[in-house]
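dumping this here before i forget
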Amino acid sequence: MKEREMKSGREIHPAAFTALRRDRMGMRIYGYVRVSSKDQNEARQLIALEPYHIPSDRVFVDKQSGKDFERPQYQKLLKRIRPGDLIVVKSIDRLGRNYEEILEQWRVITKKLKADILVIDMPLLDTRSRGGDLTGTFISDLVLQILSYVAQTERENIRQRQQEGIRAAREKGIKFGRPRIEKTAEFDTVRRMILKKETTVKSGAEYLGISSRTLKRWMDEEEEEQEKRK
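structure:
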């Protein structure tokens, strides 16, 4: 096989040779591709899978849109996986949108389904055993835990920097959110009409060009101010 590939001018990565040998031993190889929207092109990920010679019926492609993350093709893939099979992905983030999801899917595949994972862009994330021991799984799990810790720490740092920035901005008098709508001159007239049941909150709000919620807030504030003046 190697000679044939070399003569054709294409040299296969050693990991791909191992995967091909695994397939010949009856342990199937699968590829998984995911793009975050229907407009994105999955070609780059499919090209990365080519050296592994995965049959087209074993390559599963999901195209997500918006917040939809049901991943129907991924669910089909999990149903086909058997102990000893191998899933090849280009990058680790294909397994989930965040590291919590990635860790959970990693656990499902390697612990529950007892299959292996190979991440092309990160060779250390290769759970296949080396020399009959569990070194591959141990190193992969360790690397993944480290990546998860780094990602979680970075998220916490980002939140802390955001909170510090907001606090500093408020100290300088900077206000956040939508600007507060000031009461208009016609508010008192509309308020009296509502209290006399000559009109409704909805109609009054439409007349003033504001939302019913804003008008109710104005009326509550006016009532509180009148109570304080008593």
